[in-house]
Amino acid sequence: MDLSLPENGPEAGVLSAPGVLDTARTAFDWLVTGPHPVALDGRDIPGLPPRLVPLDELGLLMLAKDCAQRTRDAVWARLITRSRRDGGTWTVACVGLALPVLLPIATRLTRRFRGEVHDIHAAVLAGFLSELCEVDLARPVILVRLRWAAYRAGHTALRESLDSPPPS
Fold this sequence. Notes:
This protein is mostly helical.
C-alpha cells in the first residue's frame, strides 16, 4: 500500500520538513513491522479472512474493488470502537488506514497554496481525528463521512490562511 505524500510542484507550498501525515505514515509502518504486526480479528467480520489480519493486509483488502461496503463499514466500526476504547495504537491504525483518502485531500487543498502547507495538513488530520470520536458507527459509509470531516477542516484552515493578512 503506497502511502507516500506526493511532492509539491513549483506552484505549491514546499514541504521543508516531514509533516504530520509523514509522521502518521511512519507510526503506522511501525505497527505493521516485525514478527508480530498489529492485526484485527477477521473471524466475525463477513468478507475478511477468518484469522488475524495484519493492518497493512487489511488496508489492501479494504482498497480492493471487490470489497463490499458492508465489510468496509464493519472494519471501520471495529477499528473506531477500539480507538475510542483503547486509544493509542488503534487511533494510529485508523489514521494509517485512512491515509489513502487523507493524502489526496491534503495534496488537493495545498496544490497551489504558496504558504505553509503543514498547517493545512495538520487541520486535515485534526478534522479526521475529531470526527473519529463522533462519527455514528451505525450509519453506512463511515470512511466517507470521516473523509468529508477531514476535507472541511482542511478547507477551513486554507480559507483562514488565505484570508489572513500577509506577513510583513
